[in-house]
Write the structure tokens for this entry.
Amino acid sequence: MKISTKGRYALRMLIDLAEHQNDGFIALKDIAARQDISKKYLEQIVPILNRAELLVTNRGFQGGYRLSRPAEKYTVGEILRATEGGLSPVGCLECTTDVCPRALGCETLPVWKGLEKVINDYLDGITLQDILDQKTERDASDYVI
Amino acid sequence: MKISTKGRYALRMLIDLAEHQNDGFIALKDIAARQDISKKYLEQIVPILNRAELLVTNRGFQGGYRLSRPAEKYTVGEILRATEGGLSPVGCLECTTDVCPRALGCETLPVWKGLEKVINDYLDGITLQDILDQKTERDASDYVI
DNA sequence: TATTATACTACTAAAACGGTAGGATTTCAA
DNA sequence: TTGAAATCCTACCGTTTTAGTAGTATAATA
């Protein structure tokens, strides 16, 4: 029941980009240095974010990345769903071709459905801008509802 | 971000025991047959539940297991925390000896703290008895808050 | 055309997952 | 007292996922 480094690093990368929204294209090596993440590994995460149209790329000299929209238009939920490949707590909830044969009478399914909902609702309620704002106001007592 | 079979099977085993609360000790082979789970694998899950004092064991002839308390005294949260080894969405939140050096200025930590809270709050709000009750009333629209 | 950057693909060590296998131990009934 | 029924314990094992590293190709520009 863990968020992998892929999702965590992606979130940190996008926060980093949000903090440098007005600095043009940001090179991956700068993000990697600031966030202390392997640049090579970030290179693998970028295509996922690109496919989800979460960032804009500029190749070649003085290239790099920037956000494709303002920071308040990104939710943590969509970032994590893209990088983690969904946020369902159990496989049964993903729309795959093979449905669980026990699903019909399954007593635990409603538990997982509800859990999926609270997770998504919570993460969709936080934007990149919220995270930036919280950084400034130091006495903000987290995101605990 | 998945609950493993260990947690899911443990929950199903305890639900099964809850459904047979008044039938004395229930042999593992019966649970395994009803739930269609490998008995050998369940044998590995049982010690975890025993350490957490979630069930009572009777060894030898006509032995088996039963719940150690009434079904309404079990929350899904405590069952999953025991079997999954905690429900933190990131390692940083677990009280280990080595604390993340980035923790102090970490912008994502409050997100994970909040996520951990909504997950635990939700799962601690559901008891085994709730699950039994929901089985009876067929029109109950899940546990969605 | 040299330099700086991203893009793509392959590889890999280590850990976690999801079990299986086999024997030891306990209990009780016949 | 012995044998059957049950849990207990520990080792093993194939597969998948995780968390990267490495190397080369491609693009842009000064």
